[in-house]
Queue: 2 jobs
Job 1
Amino acid sequence: MSEIIKTEAIVLRKINFGDSSRIALFYSKDFGKISGIIKGARSSKSKIGSMVDTINLLQLVLYKKDAREVQLISEVDLIKHFSHIKDDYQKLKYATAIIELLTTMTSENEHNIKLFDGTVRILTLLDSSDENPQLLFVKYFFFFLKEIGYEFQIEHCNVCGKKIQLGDQASYNYETGLICAECRADRLTNFNFTEELFELLICLNSKRNNIKYSEKDLDLIMIMLEKFLMYQLHEFKGLKAFNLN
Ligand SMILES: [Zn+2]
């Protein structure tokens, strides 16, 4: 039995298939990551071929069969194509990293509406606002980690559980995460936070706008998050989007 389903989806990847079809990997609102085939997508009469392009937000109608690995897509409508992202190298780099996180770190058929909505929101901001693309990405990275179950927590020492507040000495160890001054004494640390860096970490995890930051601190936090994920998940080898420079 197959059901006819309508869902919104972000295109993660596309490949040509046969003479005229296209297969794509999507992150969908209702089913998480799914693959689908669009027959005839590349024929000259079809507008669908250009819609099914990486990063685009689409509305899909599909015949969903749980036993099938690749779903049959019968209708495609374009909701957003994020043209400013595609015109701007910096924006594109961070959007590509977002697509990469969804592709490599989420499971097929595991939906998470909050993650889907948060991703659409960040892509929309990347596309239409003047905010620093790296700042937007780092905020998204914290949100993403939390949504996939690897929250990078910054309130308590990860060893003794003591609350760490702004102004306290805080350090970081890739294995344990954030640690307090006392626990720092008997273990190796990768680095100690300056007050500015720790404040930035807190701001990035709040809903605050107008965040003050230096590029250097933002770079440092991004590296820390990437390494944090590598430690949590050994199959994660870092984001390729950043190694293309
Ligand atoms: Zn401690």
Job 2
Amino acid sequence: MRPIILFDIDHTLINNRKLAPLIGRHLLMKFKILGRKIFNGDWEGFRTAFKPELYALGYLILGSAEEFSKRKGVLERGFFKPHFFRDSVFSDAVPTLKYLKDKAILGIFSQGPRSFQISKLTFSGLEKFFEKRYIFVFPPFKATRTKEVLDKLPSKKVYFVDDREDVARVLLNHKVKVFTINRDNDSPSPAGSIKVSSLEDLKKFF
Ligand SMILES: [Mg+2]
């Protein structure tokens, strides 16, 4: 049985500090356009420009991951621009995932709104590396759900990759191997976890 590697998303695969300003700038630009439409009394133009953003916002707050594939095309017209997500993938992610895909079963262990996390995987293009049934997303603190996840996995050889020390600490209570990716150079990693400075370092272990 191949080992299973479960990756965190935020700050492990995707740089949220890059993604958030890209979305922010897009919205700012859109607000300027909307302001101009109001100023010119162009209500039809206002409605057309506002609708996709409102739709994207609605999905972000109320949408479900299950309806994501149906809504994908409409979301792309709002602030869910696929290139924002692609441009926010850490440069070491794709080469590492490509390499590991043949050596292990890859999955996700992430926290946050499921709809948003799933959209990050799809729009970034990373989704293809992961096995659908091993994509686990829990709000708000995933580590408390570790046992539930481990019970669903067919292999006893399970590895986690995460950037957060508090998450790693809980994971280590479950007799699994944990890689902590150090994205900020100063983040501590708990004793027992394997600290890596680039995802590419994982290749040495598989
Ligand atoms: Mg993270």
